Task: inverse folding
């Protein structure tokens, strides 16, 4: 799976770099060192659709249409916690519990974080959890020590143990697309009340939907706090489970992403391919 993702990510990086025109499948294949047929098969095996359909899901016209649907859905879901969608387009219920200020002492000196490394459709991730839930998910991009340094930077005095547990084990299954008998996930996060509101609103943006910073601000009743909403989105400590990748610009452009623009495009296209039946083309 990761092998296919690396080829797709490099193809998307090349596509973005071509400012004048969208590269052909043959041009992208040559760039990533595959034959056109091998690259096409990589897209189909990884995303479930071919290259042409995948790129349609990233077009400005398509994402603007999804934004219109997503805006209505986000506002309507303000009090809903139920998962939507079936089959490949399935949403796990995610609950957030806040870590109280001072609960574990400065820097988490009374906190043990169990961590594991796991595969996802978008590259390897580091997952760390407390006894109450998942606290951290970051992409490693092949640099495990750097990923661990990022975790230590957040919890400087916590005890880190490489060990599977109930919470990170559930996340491993979900991110690995094995959702059998996994109906919900629990997050245990250090955050301000404002950040929690934004993240909880983000959890209402289900797979296949998209939103904008202004839509999120409206959903939490803070229409004039768009910049603060952007900061809260950027501070998301659990990649993928809190779907900050589903926040795009109101123009229909995908915008930036902490874990690289090509990964954001890959995730959005991959999710759209699984939810095509909900919105159509």
Result:
């Amino acid at each position: 799976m990761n092998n296919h993702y690396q080829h797709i990510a490099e193809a998307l990086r090349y596509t973005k770099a071509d400012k004048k025109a969208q590269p052909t499948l043959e041009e992208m294949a040559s760039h990533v060192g595959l034959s056109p047929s091998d690259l096409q098969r990589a897209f189909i095996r990884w995303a479930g659709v071919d290259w042409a359909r995948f790129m349609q899901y990233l077009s400005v016209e398509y994402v603007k249409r999804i934004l219109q649907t997503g805006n209505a859905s986000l506002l309507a879901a303000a009090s809903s916690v139920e998962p939507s969608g079936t089959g490949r387009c399935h949403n796990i219920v995610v609950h957030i519990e806040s870590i109280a200020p001072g609960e574990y002492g400065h820097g988490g000196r009374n906190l043990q974080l169990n961590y594991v490394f796991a595969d996802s459709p978008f590259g390897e991730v580091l997952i760390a959890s407390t006894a109450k839930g998942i606290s951290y998910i970051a992409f490693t991009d092949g640099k495990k020590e750097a990923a661990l340094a990022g975790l230590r930077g957040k919890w400087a005095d916590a005890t880190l143990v490489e060990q599977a547990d109930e919470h990170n084990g559930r996340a491993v299954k979900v991110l690995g697309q094995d959702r059998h008998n996994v109906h919900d996930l629990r997050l245990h996060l250090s955050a301000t009340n404002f950040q929690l509101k934004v993240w909880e609103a983000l959890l209402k943006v289900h797979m296949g939907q998209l939103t904008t910073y202004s839509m999120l601000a409206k959903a939490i009743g803070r229409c004039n706090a768009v910049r603060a909403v952007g900061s809260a989105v950027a501070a998301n400590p659990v990649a993928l489970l809190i779907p900050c990748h589903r926040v795009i610009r109101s123009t229909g452009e995908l915008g930036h992403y902490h874990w690289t623009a090509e990964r954001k495009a890959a995730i959005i296209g991959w999710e759209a391919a699984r939810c095509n039946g909900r919105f159509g083309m």
Q: What stands out?
A: Residues 48 and 205 are 22 Å apart (CA to CA). Residues 60-76 form the longest helix (17 residues). The chain has twelve helices and six strands. The domain at 100-190 is CATH 3.30.160.70 (Double Stranded RNA Binding Domain).
